[in-house]
Amino acid sequence: MSLSGKIKNAGFWQAFEVITKFILQFVYFAIMARILLKEDYGLMAIANGIIGIGAIFISGGMGTALIQKIDINDRYINAALQTSLFIGLLLFFIFFITASIIGQFYDDNRLESVIQVISINFVLLAISNISVNLLHKSFKFKNTSLVTTISLFCGYSMGISLAYMDYGVWSLIIATLFSSFISTVGFFIYAPIKVSRKIYFKEAKELFGFGSGMMLLALSNFFSNNGLNLVLGKIFSPSTLGIFERSSYIKTLPSLFLGDIIDKVMFPVMSEIQNENNRLISIFKFTIGLSNSLMIPVTVFLMFFTPEIVHILMGDEWLDVIIPLQIMFIVLPFSNSGRMADSIVRAKGLVYKNVTRKYIFTGIIILLSSSLGYFYGVIGAAIGICLSYVINYLMMLFLVCLLYTSDAADDSLRV
To answer: Is the pLDDT confidence value at 190 over 70?
Structure first.
């Protein structure tokens, strides 16, 4: 199949996945918001923040390195799986043992059992991460879309059933684990791995060279998104943190709808033509233009109808979400454009040139959101997020321009 054919087919199935995921999340969100308490979401936000740090070291590196590497074989695949599984098991034991300390830090003993149970997800992610990235590398987005849709439906159905049975925050936890288990089995069926008993240190080291850089970038992305809840968890009460977390989550939904389609499809494509700078920059200009032409009018619409969105999604008990959500919607065009620029840098394998910029952004968003949140509450934190994303967008464009200006100069010197 030609490159354009791969893009069209992958784009169709990725769009199918994102649309069905959006619908399922919309229904799940609306139902659960009317059953669970704000403090349930606040508690889950802290747990997800803690667990998310470890999940980065599993999903952020070795699987992505397989996509970026042009030629792979069973040795590289086994090396990635062995490394990922080792990290997953190690993280499970670390968080299981330290869960009580984390609960004491946040003055909430309920966190101990919550973190111990949800840390099982590390092992599931370690197995599924390699298979799903192999499917993406071979452009088998139909398989990943079907597995993701089925696993989410089953997980959300389980969560809603348990919520109606008054399981509270545990309904969210069990829904997450059940969905992860089904997706792990499904991905492994579609992308089976010939598991070897031999340990492939050389291949693992080679993959880790790129993968470790991706982990650093993913860690930065995490702290600038879900990880921010860890900082605000010490500033806000569980109920107030629940308001912030739900506002931030709704803000990400439009970005998931478009950004995930473009990012997941274009990264494998860009990786395949990583040595053709003119084609890469043409694709970048097209995707960023497409993203902004769609996202800017969507942003205006969402800001204008935020009260109606909150009422439909969450009910009258969550009206405190309206103003911070309107502020957060402003970042959507800047967030999506930043993701497009990030994809092209990753495709070139130049992740370490991106690390400094990402950590500057992370420091800015934590500083602005926590300081403004401390003085002005949830609205202050939302303003901090908005300002940070604008700064990050400008830094990302500067990096891309610098990167390709340098490449053009190198090409002219070779001539």
So the answer is: yes
